[in-house]
Write a structure and sequence with these properties.
Layout: E1 2-6, H1 12-24, E2 33-39, E3 54-58, H2 62-85, H3 91-97, E4 105-111, H4 113-120, H5 127-139, E5 145-152, E6 159-162, H6 173-185, E7 190-193, H7 197-200, H8 205-211, E8 216-219, H9 225-230, E9 246-251, E10 254-259
Parallel strand pairs: 1-5, 2-3, 2-4, 4-5, 6-7
Antiparallel strand pairs: 1-6, 8-9, 9-10
Helix pairs in contact: 2-5, 6-8
Length: 264
């Protein structure tokens, strides 16, 4: 999942969604991509519809939105079964193990997430489809079903969230992410990227740029990981004192024990 937060409705965030959709049709290394969209941002995404790899960009049509979520729900369940049969944990593994190199990734774009959430999270007859959306967020990535959405803030600062940074290695987005990280570090914007501890040991430029900031959150860390990943020593840690959600926040050479809330 990629989340883009911005203060400006016709902002770089929406332009980035359009760029993602266009780039999805030009990638070869990452395999084919099918793009769908929910446009709650004054029609900013509908100009993408003529592209051959782009399906519908749906505005406020409730029936069409439900049909799209019904399609994605069926695809999520079908892929879960197929990937399990092939013992594949990612779409790249599935393509190789099942000899289906053209199995497409699916990218769902949402322009104006706040409006979508307000209309669908608790409304009668719609909330069950918002639960489907939550399932896509939690289970879709490893099955090749991805979500990118925009939200709008009163502040001129932008927040960019990149889930599982390792997924972007050696893809068309790799070099662009390195440049994006460099630009954010020179600005007052905010970027968060996450990944498994083992992947952060990598020397790839996209990881090196993130680690050079010496700022991060290590969940359930080993004592040595502070030095290895963020060049900041951690105090001696007892893993038994670190249940899920507890970790060490590192910033400016200082460390602080923190506890994150867990979503049930």
């Amino acid at each position: 999942m990629v989340t883009l937060l911005s203060h400006d409705l016709e902002s770089v965030a929406l332009r980035t969604l359009r760029t993602l959709a266009i780039a999805a049709g030009r990638t070869s290394a990452g395999g084919p991509v099918a793009v769908y969209g929910l446009d709650f941002a004054a029609g900013s995404l509908r100009r993408l519809e003529p592209l051959p790899h782009v399906g519908s960009m749906i505005g406020g049509d409730i029936e069409r939105i439900i049909r799209l979520f019904r399609l994605l729900k069926a695809e999520l369940e079908a892929r879960g079964n197929r990937f399990a049969e092939a013992t594949a944990s990612t779409i790249a593994e599935y393509r190789a193990l099942a000899n289906r190199p053209n199995e497409p990734r699916i990218l769902l774009l949402i322009g104006g997430f706040a409006a979508f959430r307000e209309d669908w999270e608790v409304a009668s007859g719609r909330s069950n489809w918002y639960d489907v959306f939550r399932s896509i967020l939690s289970d879709g990535r490893q099955l090749g079903i991805h979500v990118a959405f925009t939200a709008y803030l009163a502040s001129p600062r932008m927040a960019i969230v990149v889930e599982n940074l390792a997924d972007f290695l050696q893809t068309p987005a790799d070099a662009a992410l390195v440049e994006l990280i460099k630009q954010v570090k020179r600005s007052n914007h905010f970027l968060v990227a996450d990944g498994e501890a083992a992947s952060w040991n990598s020397s790839w430029p996209v990881f090196a740029e993130m680690k050079n900031s010496r700022r991060g959150l290590l969940l359930q860390p080993d004592t040595i990981q502070g030095d290895i990943l963020l060049k900041t020593p951690l105090p001696r840690l007892n893993r038994a004192e670190f249940p899920p959600g507890r970790g060490m926040m590192v910033a400016g050479g200082k460390v602080l024990r923190v506890q994150l809330p867990l979503v049930e």
